[in-house]
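Question (not urgent): is this output format expected?
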Amino acid sequence: MTTDPYATLGLTKSATEEEIKKAYRKLARTSHPDLHPDDAAAEARFKVISAAYDLLKDPETRARFDAGEIDATGAERPPRQYYRDFAEAPGNPYQQTRGFQAQGDPADIFAEILRQRSRQSGEDFGGRGFAAPGPNFHYALEVPFLDAARGGEMRLTLPDGSSIAVKIPQGAREGQTLRLRGKGGPGLGGGAPGDALITLSIRPHPVFTREGDDILLTLPITIDEAVLGAKVTAPTIAGPVSLTVPKGASSGRVLRLRGRGITRQGATTAGDQLVELRIVAPPAIDDALRDFLANWRKSNAHDPRAGLLNEAAS
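Got this back:
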């Protein structure tokens, strides 16, 4: 797979931030190892895709890559050497005399202009060596649904067997990348260490699903609760709450619990929890219930499918 981050995401250098984000999301779904457990190469592809996205989504690192200051891993490129670096080196047989230098060699002047530009952009090699930050390391971490919703802390095992603590922010979402400063590879020449970039995948929950900042839940209710109405207990991501089922409720009706959804870190408002009612018949029908419903059917001609059949025939 190519090391050019643009080519990795199938983009050109003119791509917008939104195009970069869309391309990453599309490729992440096709290569995430948790979604493709039978594909041995999925994890390797996913790491390359994530690395490309991490570099291009940050306008600063993208600009530095486009300018050739860093490579596709985020590491500083080797220093450039100019004419003066060789001309002034001790023992250079072609070293000019002071008198000739005073006249201003055009090549030397040109080299000095380039040197000044490099210093203005933060480089100053000047024959004294250089320092470069270490490479970033990329990891994938599966987070339980409720830990992602409520926030928490997990430990990530590193390739050398050690582990680091990872703080999961409240409202963490699928594909979100966390950055742990200084937890990457060691720097060169005294440079700062790289970072650990951790891409999150959210483990599905058996009861809850997420849609934006809203939580969706299907709640079973009994026939009598649907007909007569009732106070029932419904689970939420913060714990059980009381919910009123209105009289005459039908399966598919959605009730809204305001503020019981996701509260993202830094947000001032929370999402809602949407509760879809589903009427469930009792596992065993006794004689009393069967006789009651049989007599009720004789005296009631209600047909909930009449409108549907009429519309289907029109």
